[in-house]
Amino acid sequence: MYGLDKGEKATMFKIIKEMLPPDVRVARDAQDLLVECCVEFINLVSSESNEVCSRGDKRTISPEHVLQALKDLGFGEYIDEVYAAYEQHKLETMDSPKGGKWSGVEMTEEEALAEQQRMFAEARARMNNGMNIQKPSDSDKSVES
């Protein structure tokens, strides 16, 4: 299933279970299918976000690029809910004692881009069942999806 580890699968299964009434059970193969659909949706939105970013001659995908990608893909009716979830996430990570994974970390745009590309490469490798991670070249103007 796209190289997701047990913890990632467990998290996805937990989300699925929490979204359903307590008396509803989901077969394991249906859970797997739902997770695969989620991964494909993320790939689609990531790819389109990258296209939006590239059209704007930007090198780093921003939340605005993701929201525009949702609109371009025909998911405009979800933008308000997605934006609200994003704002809530920002509030929660600011208020947390740790301040989130990147709290206090100052990066240049180039460093942030390199880190973003590295993380996307790792995610692609996991999805491709652990095939080797390709390091993005300096000539890349946008994040590959």
Automatic annotation (TrEMBL):
Residues 9-70 form the Transcription factor CBF/NF-Y/archaeal histone domain. It comes from the Eukaryota. Keywords: Nucleus. One of its GO terms (cellular component) is nucleus. The keyword Transport does not apply. It is found in: Nucleus. Pfam families: CBFD_NFYB_HMF. One of its GO terms (molecular function) is protein heterodimerization activity. PANTHER family: PROTEIN DR1 HOMOLOG, PROTEIN DR1 HOMOLOG ISOFORM X1. This is Transcription factor CBF/NF-Y/archaeal histone domain-containing protein. It comes from Colocasia esculenta.
